[in-house]
Amino acid sequence: MINDFYEYISPRPEEEKMRLEVVDRIKGVIHDLWPSAEVQVFGSFSTGLYLPTSDIDLVVFGKWETLPLWTLEEALRKRNVADENSIKVLDKATVPIIKLTDSFTEVKVDISFNVKSGVKAARLIKEFKEKYPVLPYLVLVLKQFLLQRDLNEVFTGGIGSYSLFLMAVSFLQLHYREDVCNPNINIGVLLIEFFELYGRHFNYLKTGIRIKDGGCYVAKDEVQKNMMDGYRPSMLYIEDPLQPDNDVGRSSYGAMQVKQAFDYAYVVLSHAVSPIAKHYPNNETESILGRIIRVTQEVDEYREWIRKNWGSPSQNDLPLNRNDVALFESQQLDECNNNVPNDDDDDVVVLPSAPHSKTSSNSSSPSPSLRSSPSSSPLSPSSTTSTSTSSDAVSPAETHTALKYCISAFFSVALEVS
C-alpha cells in the first residue's frame, strides 16, 4: 500500500508544468524590476519531494542596500500575480520572506533574497536520495501525515520539510539493519520503526541529531558549551550539516505535538500488523496505511483540474486515482485531524480529544504531549500518557513484544494484499 500511495501522491508531469508556469510568471515580474537578478528554485519542488499542495520556494540573488521585500510585494500585487488577500511580507522573520498564493493556480510561493543555504540544501537532499532509495517513500508518507494534522509548517511551530528529511536520514544512518540502502527493503517496517523512534524512544530533552560524517546523536549539554551565553539547543535540535552552528529545528516549538502524533501512528500501525488484527471488523475494508493517512476529495479534485488544464490529451482519458487510494471528506477527521473510524471500528486506537488552537481554516493541531523524562541515555523511553484503547485491544507493551517476532513478514504480506 505504501508503494501505491507513493505512486499516487508523487508529482505528475502536468503538475510540474503548472508549477513551472507559476515560477515563470514571478520571474517575469522580478526581471522587469531588476534585469540582472538571478532567480533559483529550491526546496521540495527542486528535489521532487513535494505534495500536490506543497509550496514553491524561490530565492532571488542580487545587489541591494536593503532587501526589496516591499518593492517586489507591490509589483506582484499590481501585476495580479498574487492573490490580493494572500500576499504577506515577513520582514521580521529569521529569514525575511514574501509569502503569496498564485492568483490562478492557488499554488503557494515563498520568496527570499540572497540566501544560499536553501540551494545547497537541495543538492544535499538529492545526494541522500541516491544513497537511500527508500527516502522518497518515507518522506512523502511522513509529509502527508504531518500535513493532515497541520504540523508541517515551521511558521506555526511544526516540522518543516528540511528538518523532517534530516530526521529520516538520521534514522537510516543509525539503523541497526545493514540493508537500509537496499531499494527492496520493507518500507512498512521502516515506517513503523521511524514512528517508534521519534514517538517513543528519542530523548528530545537531552539529545540532538547530527547528520555529518555518517551521523550520530549529540548530547545537548555538550552542544550548549559551544553556544553563546544565554542560548541553548532547541527541543528538536538538528545540526545543519551545511552550517553546523545552525539549529534547523529551532523554530519547531510544536515538536512535542509532533512527537505525540508519531506515537499515535506507532500504536495504530502496530495494532494493524499484530496477529489480532485479523479479528478487527474493518480488517478487510481498510488498508494499513489508510488508518493514519487519507487524501481529501478536495485534493483529488484539484489534481483533476490540473490534469485537465495542463495534461496531455492521452492523460485525460485515464483515471487519476488508478491505485484506488482512499479519499475522504474533511469532516471525517477528528479534532486531532486523525482519521475517524467507522461506527463498527471498535478496535481502532484514537487519540483523546483535547483543547486545541486553529492553525488553518479546516484543521487543527493535536494537543501538546507531556515532556520526555530526563535521562542519561540519548534514546531513553519517554514517560508519556498512553493513548486510549478499547477493552478488546492489546496494550502497547504486548503489541511491541509480538511485533518484534512477526512484524516484518506480516507487514510484507499485508502490504501485498492491500
Structural write-up:
It is a single chain. Helix content is 39%, strand content 11%. With 418 residues, it is of the alpha/beta class. The strands form 3 sheets. The protein has a 5-stranded mixed beta sheet, with helices on both faces. A 4-stranded mixed beta sheet has the order 7-6-8-9. Strand 3 and strand 4 form a beta hairpin. Helix 1 (2-9) packs across helix 6 (135-148), helix 8 packs across helix 10 and helix 10 crosses helix 12 (396-417). It is globular. The N and C termini lie close together (6 Å). The model is unreliable at 344-418 (pLDDT under 50).
How many helical stretches?
A: 12
Strand content: 5-15%
Q: Label the structural class.
A: alpha/beta
Strand order of the largest sheet: 1-2-5-4-3
| Global mean pLDDT | 81
The backbone outline, from C-alpha atoms, is: globular
Helix content: 25-40%
Radius of gyration: 22 Å
Number of strands: 11
User: Spans with pLDDT under 50 lasting ≥5 residues?
Assistant: 344-418
Q: Which sequence of SSEs, written as H and E, runs from N to C? A: HHEHEHEEEHHHHEEHEEHEHEH
Largest sheet, in brief, is: 5 strands, mixed
Cα distance spanning the termini = 6 Å
InterPro entries: MTPAP-like_central, NT_sf, PAP_assoc, Trf4-like
GO molecular function: ATP binding; guanylyltransferase activity; metal ion binding; mRNA binding; poly(A) RNA polymerase activity
Keywords: Magnesium, Metal-binding
Protein name: Polymerase nucleotidyl transferase domain-containing protein
